[in-house]
Structures are given as C-alpha cells and as structure tokens.
Amino acid sequence: MEPTAARRGRGPKRRARHIWPAVTLASSGCRTPGCEREGARSETYTVVFKDQAGESYRCDLAQNAWSSFADGKRYSGKLRALTGSLDCDSLLPR
Questions:
Q1: How does 22-34 read in b/e, with b if 16+ C-beta sit within 10 Å?
Q2: CA distance 38 to 14
Q3: pLDDT recorded at residue 13
Q4: Residue 92 pLDDT exceeds 70
Q5: 82-89 long-range CB contacts below 8 Å, 24 or more apart?
Q6: Can you tell me whether residue 87 is helix, strand or coil?
Q7: Which residues contact 3 (CB under 8 A, 6 or more apart)?
Q8: pLDDT at 14
Q9: How far apart are CA 2 and CA 72, in angstroms?
Q10: 44 Cβ partners below 8 Å, 6+ apart?
Q11: Residue ranges per structural domain of the chain
Q12: What is the reported pTM?
C-alpha cells in the first residue's frame, strides 16, 4: 500500500509549524448575550492508502505520526478479518 494523491502535496515538504488564522470579532471580550466569541479549534491528520487492487483505506493519526509518512513510499499493514478495515497501528515501511 502507498499513500494516494489525497496525502500528496501536504506531506513532509510542508513541515512548517501549523498556525491558525487570525480571527476578527466584532468586539473583544464576551460579556453580553449574543456577543461573538472564538469557537473551539480541532484538526485531523489523515493518510489515505491504496492497495494494489485499488481499494482505499484511511488512517486518522496524530500529527507527528502523520508527518512520518513519505509520499510514494510503500507500507505494509494488516487488515482486520471481520471488517476488512486497515489496522493503522500495524503500518510499517517496506
């Protein structure tokens, strides 16, 4: 299996630190009903693998694990017997 185009272009070449965009609110501080405030932030790091048969598998990973995958490199992993899903913890470079 190897990472597909969904992973390419956003991989190891962009190791710059992630910076959230600045938020502009109507007023600073939230002291009255209906005022604006910045919401929670979340991020997901996903690698999509494709096997030789063309089947795709997704792994949502921590940023440090995600950034360790290299575009075009091959990885081996185990598929779960009942669900056929990829065991993301079993991935190893070939």
A1: eeeeeeeeeeeee
A2: 27
A3: 46
A4: yes
A5: 85/57, 86/1, 86/49, 86/57, 86/58, 86/59, 88/59, 88/60, 88/61
A6: strand
A7: 11, 47, 48, 49, 69, 70, 71, 72, 73, 75
A8: 47
A9: 6
A10: 60
A11: 1-12+43-89
A12: 0.61
